[in-house]
Structures are given as structure tokens and as C-alpha cells.
Amino acid sequence: MTIIERITAELNRRGVKQKTLCEACGISPSTFSTWVKINPPGIPSEYVPTIAGMFDMSCDELLTGQESAALTEDESRLVNMFRDLGWEGKQVVLAVAIQEHRSLDNAGNTSNVGNTFNP
Fold first, then answer.
1. Angle at Cα 18 formed by Cα 33 and Cα 6, nearest 5°?
2. pLDDT of residue 70
3. Would you list the DSSP string of 2-42?
4. What's the angle, vertex CA 60, arms to CA 58 and CA 66, rounded to 5?
5. Structural domain boundaries of the chain?
6. Is 18 in contact with 12 (CB distance < 8 Å)?
7. Contact (CB, 8 A) for 28 and 22
8. How many Å from the N-terminal Cα to the C-terminal Cα in the chain?
9. Which DSSP category does 71 fall into?
10. Separation of alpha carbons 2 and 16, rounded Å
11. What would the pLDDT profile of 103-119 be if each residue is shown by its tens digit?
12. 3-64 CATH fold
């Protein structure tokens, strides 16, 4: 399914008129009609956030048709802690993570089942 097919399906599902979408994006109805007719693989990127917001979905979901995987609580905490580190701290964390990943690969264990982060 192309992005135009996803957009038109969402318009129909939600009962939103094409005119409303065009006004929100600042495009003419004839521009949208042309998109529908030629069904391009993509649309200009500046319209993606506005359209995704209209449909209460992420840009990724609008572009690909698949929801983004949400971070777990532990992953979110780890990301936030990493962001708080200075450059040197980030380099240390990355080096350790790379080393750990390589040792898992060498051991043939790439599964993360049972690995939890709980400082």
C-alpha cells in the first residue's frame, strides 16, 4: 500500500474530507487529486507531519503503514541516562556495549531474552 492509498483509506475511515486535508497542508485540491491519480511512492516530506498529526499517528506509521515499536521502560530509562552523559561518558558506554555485543555474537547468543537493565 502506498502512502496515498494509506491517506485516502484514513480519510474514508475517519470521514474526513479531502478538502480538510488540503487546507491543513496548504495545498490545492487539484494537487491532492493529482497525487491520487498518479499514486506516487511518496509525497513531499513537508506534508508528512501535518497529515500524520491529522490521523493521530506517527510519521513512520503514515510512511510505512507499520507502527513504531515503543521503548520498554528499561530502554527509555537507559536512553535518558545516556542523554545525560557527557561526550566522554557516552564513548565509554558505547565501547562497553560494543564489546558486550561482540562477545554475545562470538558465543552465538544474540538473544536478549532474560537480559534486563535494573541499576
1. 80
2. 76
3. -HHHHHHHHHHHHT--HHHHHHHHT--HHHHHHHHHH--S-
4. 100
5. 3-64, 71-119
6. no
7. yes
8. 43
9. P
10. 19
11. 888 877 655 544 544 44
12. 434 Repressor (Amino-terminal Domain) (1.10.260)
d(CA 55, CA 62): 9
Q: Amino acid letter at 98?
A: I
Where do we find the cell 560494543? 98
Give the global pTM: 0.58
> In which residue are the cell numbers 565509554 written?
92
| Residue percentage of the chain with pLDDT more than 70 | 91
pLDDT of residue 107: 79
Question: How many residues are recorded in the chain?
Answer: 119
The C-alpha atoms of residue 10 and residue 7 are separated, in whole angstroms, by: 5
Q: Are 35 and 5 contacting, i.e. CB atoms less than 8 angstroms apart?
A: no
Residues of the chain with pLDDT below 70 are 109-119
What pLDDT does residue 19 have?
Answer: 96
Question: Of 68, 62, 45, whose CA–CA distance to 4 is shortest?
Answer: 62
Rounded distance between C-alpha atoms, residue 41 and residue 3, angstroms: 7
CA distance 100 to 113: 15
